[in-house]
Amino acid sequence: MRRQIKWCGRLATIQMVATFLLLAGSQSLGASDQASTGQATGQPAGKAEVKIDNFSFGPETLTVSVGTTVIWTNRDDIPHTVVSTEGVFKSKVRDTDETFSYTFSKAGTYPYYCSVHPKMTGKIVVQ
Ligand SMILES: [Cu+2]
User: Fold this and answer.
1) Of the four, 8, 14, 67, 76, which is 20 to 30 A from 55 by CA?
2) End-to-end alpha-carbon separation of the chain, Å?
3) Residue 24 pLDDT more than 70?
4) pTM for the full model?
């Protein structure tokens, strides 16, 4: 019992450190989009964009590395949502030019759709 609590605490600490690193990473990325930040811990956290236009997500399948923040922007003149099929993330209704973002901290495939128009689907592949 006690050991479990300790483990949970440690996980939370790791998560906090990871979040901090992510934040720090994305801030320095703003200053120089292309240059590598030269962090010893591997790839710097990046950003990637999905545009919502004409009732579709573009690109429909987006492949990113772990730690990437994906930003969806609604370029349509119709409201849309971005909802993970597996309940990982869920946006509110996004009007024209509104955005939704989610940071993928685990590798995997994340299918999603628009809950207003369920035929609109997309996929984020995190590796
Ligand atoms: Cu929609």
Assistant:
1) 67
2) 34
3) no
4) 0.66
